[in-house]
Amino acid sequence: MWEYLARVFMWWLVSIVKFLAAPFSMIFNPGTEHWSLVETIAITSSGAALGVFIFFHFGEIIFNWLAHHFQTKKRIFNRRNRFFIRIKHKWGFKGLLFVSGLISVPIASMVGAKLYRHNPNALPMLIIAFFCWSVVLSSIAYGLKCLGMAAV
After folding, report:
1. What is the pTM (predicted TM-score) of this model?
2. Rounded to whole angstroms, how far apart are CA atoms 96 and 68?
3. The dihedral of CA 49, 54, 57, 58: what is its sign?
4. What is the SS3 assignment for 59?
5. Ramachandran category for residue 63: left, alpha or beta (phi over 0 → left; psi -120 to 50 → alpha)
6. Over the stretch 78-112, which tens digit does the pLDDT of each residue have?
7. Strand, coil or helix: what is 119?
């Protein structure tokens, strides 16, 4: 029982740090662990939800502290800032949700906290987006395994 919980905890950590690789690593695991599709979805999505919750609130705290202690006199708009502003206005929150599974839990959560912390739906929508990504990535990995296309 404790070994199973320890393995689940380890996969939660992997899901938080490297979400994109977690479902593939779980399903193509060459060890003694054999995770089903439902277990993989449940573990990776719950790990991502935990990570989103932690990093969203942690990011909000960091950005509030930085704004309070290091207020700048004038905002400097350089090429990078203009790029981020253009992306924010063009794609918005839906764009962040769409690419969240590709970038990572900490980055997506902290960007969400920075740009959309006043949106009451930001945190739940990020969690739902990572659940959807978990279903898609786990299904792709499981389908590839069933087709015999295991990673070598």
Report:
1. 0.82
2. 26
3. negative
4. helix
5. alpha
6. 776 776 677 778 888 898 888 888 888 998 898 88
7. coil
Can you tell me the distance from the alpha carbon of 88 to that of 152, in angstroms, rounded to the nearest whole number?
39
Contact at 8 Å (CB) between 127 and 49? yes
Q: What is the pLDDT of residues 25-74, one digit of tens each?
A: 888 886 767 888 999 999 999 999 999 999 998 887 887 787 777 766 66
Dihedral pair phi/psi, residue 45, rounded to 5°: -70, -35
> What distance in Å separates the CA atoms of residue 47 and residue 143, rounded to the nearest whole number?
22
Torsion of CA 50, 66, 86, 15, to 10 degrees: -20
Show Cβ contacts of residue 133 under 8 Å, excluding neighbours closer than 6 positions.
Answer: 19, 48, 100, 101
Tokens of 20: 């994109």
Residues 127-147 have a mean pLDDT of: 93
CA distances from 108 to 3, 48, 70 (A): 31, 11, 23
